[in-house]
Amino acid sequence: xxxxxxxxxxxxxxxxxxxxxxAADYDRLIELAGAAQFVLIGEASHGTHDFYTTRxxxxxxxxxxxxxxxxxxEADWPDMLRVHRYVTGRANERGAAEALGDFRRFxxxxxxxxxxxxxxxxxxxxxxxPDRKNxxxxxxxxxxxxxxxxxxxxxxxLDKVDAEAAxxxxxxxxxxxxxxEDPQAYGYATTRGHSEPCEEAVVAxxxxxxxxxxxxxxxxxxxxxxxxxxxxxxxxLVTNAERYYRSMFRGREESWNLRDKHMTETLAALIxxxxxxxxxxxxxxxxxxxxxxxxxxxxxRGECNVGQLTRERFGERVFGIGFSTYSGTVTAARDWGEPxxxxxxxxxxxxxxEEFFHATEVPRFWLNLREANAATKLLRERRLQRAIxxxxxxxxxxxSHYFEACLPEQFDALIHLDETRxxxxxxxxxxxxxxxxxxxxxxGL
Length: 445
Hints:
This protein is an alpha/beta fold. It is built from 20 helices and 13 strands.
């Protein structure tokens, strides 16, 4: 595309853009999203301060003004359950940072960061207000990486309510003992035929727990119902995680789909448990999980995601919001398990949505992608879209961080913040402080 053509088309988008300078500029977006039951709020990276703060602000308003009562995050169930207990007054940690203390595995900064501390403190304050006894909001994780922590949670629950059932559960879960705390070692060994899978054992445990529902519910009212539900979700997580770790060595598509199906099942379980399916839910996850996969080249690879699965299941009750940025800094690692660094984000590539939005010369705006106008028509042309997860590799950016998408079919609204800054971890190590790359990286000019 020529520079002149890009400029003319960017002008069309600029005319349709809702410019952002104050919180009131999101009023119309809150009205649109507030009519849905599921609001999926994405992020273009797992380490951008502006995405987290904007998402938290939208969430606060949806809770306050539109009656949303569940926040579900791309986080592990048992780790976030500790936070849920804190924000609902069922735990007495000394503060939000302590409530987030179970998040200790890579990437720690995703949830142990300054924005999350502020949001968790706000949510606890909202819930514990005397007028909010029947309008409290819960916060939950929907991911499945916590297989061992979830097993411990199931055992801890059964130790309290049924000692004999706890002994049977320990025998079943002992199937994993040979592999220590590394679920990938279990997946590798069983996939290569070096060990028998534990599938039958974890499924049997989930079935037995569900059969015990009536017996356990006769004991302690609503608290008993909630605690059973939490334990059941942990047992279901173990069942799905067992399949997930075996699938990792059979191909990315299978493991990706298992993970996103698990997250979607968790959303359905949450609304089924709270308020008989009428609860309104806000979901926080990466754009790649929440933008409809059918509108991207993920679909061609056989991958689905939460955005697609929720739309197939709940239809017009779903409203998706994506994010993008052109440049700035991001908190990310150079490789899996390595320290977090504050890294410079290279400008959006030619032919990308990021470049297109930068050309509008509007620094912050949002677009209503449900509107039938000239801008939405232009945006239906498939373009590159950037996705930065917990790892950022600017030296191979095109292959590592871009895919093709049709934005209006992917999301219902898009928030573009042209220059953004890195998320601040609670534990800012020396690598994070020193990590920002020079403007000329990787050319070194």
